[in-house]
Amino acid sequence: MAETISMPKLGFDMAEGLLVRWVKQVGESINKGDVLAEIETDKATVEVESSATGVVLQLIVDQGTMVPVNAPIAIVGNAGEVVSEQKAEGGKQQVDEKPAPQTQPTVVSVQQASAPLDTGSVKASPLAKKIARDQKVDLSNVQGTGPGGRIVRKDIEAALSHQSPVTSPLVPVSLTSGLVDKTTTTTKLRQAIGRRLVESKTTIPHFYVTHEFKMDALMDMRKQVNAYLPDNEKVSVNDFILKGVALSLRQFPNLNATIKGSEVIQFGHVNVGVAVTVPGGLMTVVVKDTDQKTLRQISGEVKVMAARARDGKVKPDDVDGSTFSTSNLGMYDVEDFIAIINPPEAGILAISSAREVPVVEGGELKVGWRMKATISVDHRISDGAEAAQFMQKLAEFLESPVRMLV
Amino acid sequence: MAKITMREAISQALMEEMDRDPSVFIMGEEVGVWGGTYAVTKGFYDKYGAMRVKDTPIAENAIIGGAIGAAMVGQRPVAELMTINFGFSAMDYIVNQAPKLHYMFGGQFTLPLVIRAVGGGGRQLGATHSQTPDAIFAHFPGLKVVSPGTPEDAKGLLKSAIRSNDPILFIEHATMYQVRGEVPEGEYTIPIGKSKVQREGKDVTIVTYCKGLELSMKAAEELSKEGIEVEVVDLRTLRPLDMEPVIESFKKTNRAVVVEEGWKSYGVGSEIVSRIYEEAFDYVDAPIIRVAQKEVPLPYNRTLEQAALPQVHDITAAVKEVLK
C-alpha cells in the first residue's frame, strides 16, 4: 500500500517549508526512519524522515519548491506499484494497487513510473555545476535559461554578479587568497536568518533595557556546584541565567507571549531558547519547560542540542517551540550588546560577560563580579517599566542564586 | 605569399619530393600519360618518365599491393586511388597489411607508403563514387590518415607524408582542387598529427577538417556578421588525432559543433564529441552537435545530393542551436 509523505509541520507558526534537496530518488528503496529529503523552515534546515518502508515511487515537488505544511511531497510504496499522476498542488492522493491493464503497453507504464525522475534533480550543464561547486553557488537558487530550463554558465555568472559580497562568518579569511574581493553565496541558513530578522527589525518596535547584575554569589555557587560534577557535566553561568530567566518569565507572563493582531497570547509553557553559533549562521535550541527543570537538566539538554546544531544534525524538536530567547556573548569579553527579537516572541535577552570590575559598596571601593544584560522587548506587548521590573526580578535570582534551587 | 590552387599545391609537393629523393615514385590509374584524373600529375610523365610515373591496370589491390612491396624494399611509392571508394577493393592491403607489417615482422620492415585518395561527394558521381569513408580508415591503428583543408596544409602535409616511414592515407576532396589559398614560398613541411586553429573566436568551437573546413570558414564568416565569433579548429590529421587545440578551444568556448562530410553514425564527429566529454566534461555548457551527411546513399540528383551533404546553412543553424 503506497503511502504519501507530507511536508511536516515543525513549529506552531510554520506555514510552509522549502524543499532543499531530495536525499532519495525515485526507484530507491527506503526504510521507515530513513532520511528522504532536506527541508528548510524559517528556523533551520532539517531532515524529513520517511514514515513508510518501500520504494520511492514519486517525488511530487521539485527541489527548491516552497511547499505548504501537510501538502504531499512524495509517495513511498512497493516496487512496481502504479500510482496515479500526483500534482504538486496537493489534494487527495489516489493509489491504484492493481497492475496496469493488459491492454496498456508495458513501456507506457514504465515511462509513467519513471517520469518524475527528471523533476528530482536540478538541470544544469556540467560547466555550470563545476562553477557552482567552485564558487559555492546553490543551483536550486539559480534560474536556468538554457533549453528546458537548463542552468548554463551565463546563468551562474548572472547569479554571482547579483550576489552581495557576504562572507560566511565562520569561514576564516585566508591570507594566502591575497587582496582580491571574494564573493560567496550565503547559506540557506543565513538567508533564513536574514529574512526573519529583517522582518523582525522592520515590523516589531523594539525597546531595550540594560541592567547590571552582581554575580559574586552566582560565581561562588557555580564553583561549589561544579566541584561535585564530572567534567562533562559542569554547569555554566548561562545555565544559571536560563533558569533565572525562566523563573522570572513565570512571574512576567506578558514577556512570555506573542501578539497576533490585537490579541496577545501568553504562553502556558516557558520554553527558553538559546542562540547557538553554527557553521554558516546561528540557531536557537530550546529547553522545553525551562522553569520546571533543574540546573543539571538544563545544562545537559543545552549541551546535547548545541552539539547537534553545530554538527548540522539538529532535530526539529530541538529548535521548535521557544517562547523567549537568549543570546550569550559572555565568552567573548563583551561589555554589553543588544539582540533582535526572534519572532513571534515578545522579547530576547542579550547576555554579556561576567567580569571582575571595581565596584562601590557601602561607600567603599571593592572588586566585584558584574555582568550586564539587555532585554529587547516588543513595544506592542509591553513597556519599559515592565521590562525593568523583569530585570529586577531576574536580578533577585541571579544575585541570590540559592533562590533558584529551592 | 602566392595564392595557388589545391591542385597546384599537391602537384608542387609531389614534384619537390621527387626532385629531392629519387626513391619517390608515383603509381596509379591514368597518373602518367593522361596526367591524372584531376590533373594533379600533369607533366610528370614527360619530366620523370615511365619508371617513376607508372600507369597501372584498373586493379586497386594490384596498385596498393605493388606499392607495399616497393615500400618494403626501400622505395617511397605514392600510390593514387582515383577515388577512395575504389580503395574498398584494396581494403585488405590498406587496413590489414600496410598498417601491420612493421609490427608483424618485428620491425624488420618500415613502410614509407603514401596512398593519395580522392574522396567526398558533390560532383554528381553517384552513390558508389561519392563517399567520405574517412572514419573507416582512421579506425585502424598503424595507418595514419591525413586530410587537409587548405592548399598550404596540403602541400606541407604531403611532403611530410612522403618523407615519413609509416603508411599514410592522404585524402583529398574531389571538389576542392580549385580552392585557392596562400602557400609559403620555398621549402616547408607541416608535421602530421597536429590540429590547427584556422580561425579564432570566443563563442563556440567548430571542429572539422577537409571539406568541412571550407564550409565552416564560410559559416564563421556569416555568423561573425551576427556577432557570433566562431573558433574553427582544423584536425588536418584524423590519426593520430591531436585533441589538444580542440580541448583548449573548448575550455574557452564551452560549446562546440563538429562538422564532417561523412555520415554521422560512427563518424569522426562521434569520436571528437566523445573525446571532449571524456577530457573536458566539466567545461561542457551545452550538448555538442554533429553536422554530417544525411544517412542515405548519396543521391545522384543534384538537388537531392546537395540536400544530403552538409551545407553552410546547416553549420550556422547548428552553431545557433548550441548557443541557445
Descriptors:
heterodimer, A: 406 residues, alpha+beta, OB fold (Dihydrolipoamide Acetyltransferase, E2P), Dihydrolipoamide Transferase, Chloramphenicol Acetyltransferase, 3 domains, six-stranded mixed sheet, four-stranded antiparallel sheet, B: 324 residues, alpha/beta, Rossmann fold, 2 domains, seven-stranded mixed sheet, five-stranded mixed sheet, 21% strand
Give an overview in words.
The complex is a heterodimer of chains A (406) and B (324). Chain A has 406 residues and is α+β, with helices and mostly antiparallel strands. Helix content of chain A is 27%, strand content 27%. Chain A folds into three domains: 3-85 and 96-119, Beta Barrel (OB fold (Dihydrolipoamide Acetyltransferase, E2P)); 126-186, E3-binding domain (Dihydrolipoamide Transferase), CATH 4.10.320.10; 206-405, Chloramphenicol acetyltransferase-like domain (Chloramphenicol Acetyltransferase), CATH 3.30.559.10. In chain A, the strands form five sheets. Chain A has a six-stranded mixed beta sheet, sandwiched between helices. In chain A, strand 12 and strand 13 (263-266) form a beta hairpin. In chain A, helix 2 (126-135) runs parallel beside helix 3 and helix 6 crosses helix 7. The relative contact order of chain A is 0.11. Residues 89-120 and 164-169 of chain A have low confidence and may be disordered. With 324 residues, chain B is of the alpha/beta class. Chain B has two domains: 2-183, Rossmann fold (3-Layer(aba) Sandwich); 196-322, Rossmann fold (3-Layer(aba) Sandwich). Chain B has helices at residues 6-20, 44-48, 60-72, 91-97, 101-104, 134-138, 151-163, 211-225, 244-253, 268-279, 302-308, 312-322, and strands at 2-5, 24-28, 53-55, 76-81, 114-119, 144-146, 168-173, 180-183, 196-199, 204-208, 230-234, 237-239, 256-263, 289-293. In chain B, the strands form three sheets. In chain B, strands 3-2-4-5-7-6-12 form a seven-stranded mixed beta sheet, sandwiched between helices. Chain B starts with a strand and ends with a helix. The A-B interface holds A 125-130, 146-147, 150, 152-153 and B 254, 281-286, 324.
